[in-house]
Amino acid sequence: MKIMVCVDGSECSELAFSRVAVLFDKEKDYLLITSVVDKETLPLAPFIGPEEAATRFKASEYQQDEYYRHVLSNYSQRADSFAGHNCGFSLLGPDTGTSTIGELICNKAREQHVDLILLGRRGLNRVKRAFMGSVSKYVLEHAPCDVWIAKG
Questions:
Q1: CA neighbor of 82 nearest in space, from 145, 34, 19
Q2: Read out DSSP for 53-122?
Q3: Is 107 exposed, middle or buried (0-12, 13-18, 19+ CB in 10 A)?
Q4: What values do phi and psi take at 104, rounded to 5?
Q5: Which of 74, 81, 72 is nearest to 32 (CA)?
Q6: 19 φψ region: left (φ > 0), alpha (ψ -120 to 50), beta (else)
Q7: Phi, psi of 140, rounded to the nearest 5 degrees
Q8: Is the distance from CB of 113 to CB of 55 less than 8 angstroms?
Q9: What is the pLDDT of residues 71-89, one digit of tens each?
């Protein structure tokens, strides 16, 4: 079985990762550890000029990329104990065809012929969910395979 676990360093993704460590069968399974760089949440001050905004955006973008590379590196070291060489890694960023984290996850799962996606759930309240959307809900409804959600 090809299993994708989505991680971002949060408590919820930690819970999803701990679940995959328990159910993973080294003889039969392949693990794809995936993290998505969320460029939509990069901080920009509202009262700065376009050149300064571009500079700050590039710096923040680089910092986020580095953070998620570190997250993947951390999880890959931990996965080595139970998955060994049956493990791959994927750092996804926004592309021109998709705009949400959920879409990126579902597209990667489709591309890689994933059988199961594991991800955490933050438990947003109604207002936050209305404005930000719910990645876990989107993935649950649009994934090309089974989805397990670890409640945080």
A1: 19
A2: HHHHHHHHHHHHHHHHHHHHHHHHHHHHHHHTTSEEEEEE---TT--SHHHHHHHHHHHTT-SEEEEEE-
A3: middle
A4: -60, -45
A5: 72
A6: alpha
A7: -55, -40
A8: no
A9: 888 888 888 888 888 888 7
